Give the backbone structure.
Amino acid sequence: MSTLLTSTVSELRAAVAKLRAEGKRIGLVPTMGALHAGHLSLIEVAKRHADAVVVSIFVNPAQFGPNEDFSKYPRTLEEDIQKVNKAGTALCYAPPVEDIYPPGFATEVRVTGLSDQLCGQFRPRFFPGVATVVTKLLLRVMPDITVFGEKDYQQFMIVRRLAADLDIPVTVIPGPTVREADGLAMSSRNAYLSAQERKTAAALYATLQRAAEYLKREPSHVKHGLIQAEESLKNAGFTAVDYVALHDALTLEPLETYRPPARLLAAAWLGKTRLIDNIEVL
Ligand code: AMP
């Protein structure tokens, strides 16, 4: 069966109500489109936990800062629709901006603490924008489960927190990071990279892996390990490093001494492109 396309909240609600009337368990996979194998893997995870999968495609202006890449963010709706169709998605919701933010829209969802560190320090609009749109999507679809990629680990933790805090009855399931052959985490933003930058980009994952090995050997030398990792990103050709940081995997508190469960996270620039990645340190 082919994917049903919807672009307004009323169409979406009617289509979801029909799936519910058929007794289906519903899974939601929110995306900004420009779909790649990472997104498709989240659809596969959702299919394991739900009978019908809803994929949303919305480049959310609220999560971009004034000097960020909202206008040049890749938009490939036709190809995306073919991909979700092939992946066996029941419903695709690709609304225009006015459907999400009608005139007069004035509410913001902010997850304090979790949003103020790591990427939140460098992109202050990002997490409130994400939290607001994800809350709306969850309340519009009311899915049983929703899947978020570990690629955006801080975002996954924030969504989990907001669902718990706002009593939204949904289980937030993590999807593992899908990588290119050289280890680079797939991302819609990889399309911005020049051939040279693309080669350098692989150093991000390799550096995280090396740093994780070091931290396991030298658990009390976290600061040194993180500085070394930052240096090695710069030596590899990254033009700037926002952070390389070790945090508790469950609370996201920064760790001064390594002990599991921990997550090593990094954000770094290649020219005008900001890449993020993270790995579990076990
Ligand atoms: P985006 O379209 O970049 O907002 O991402 C939509 C969802 O796909 C988020 O839950 C991301 O964490 C997830 N995602 C993005 N890249 C990957 C990847 N390489 N592997 C797994 N999930 C991903």
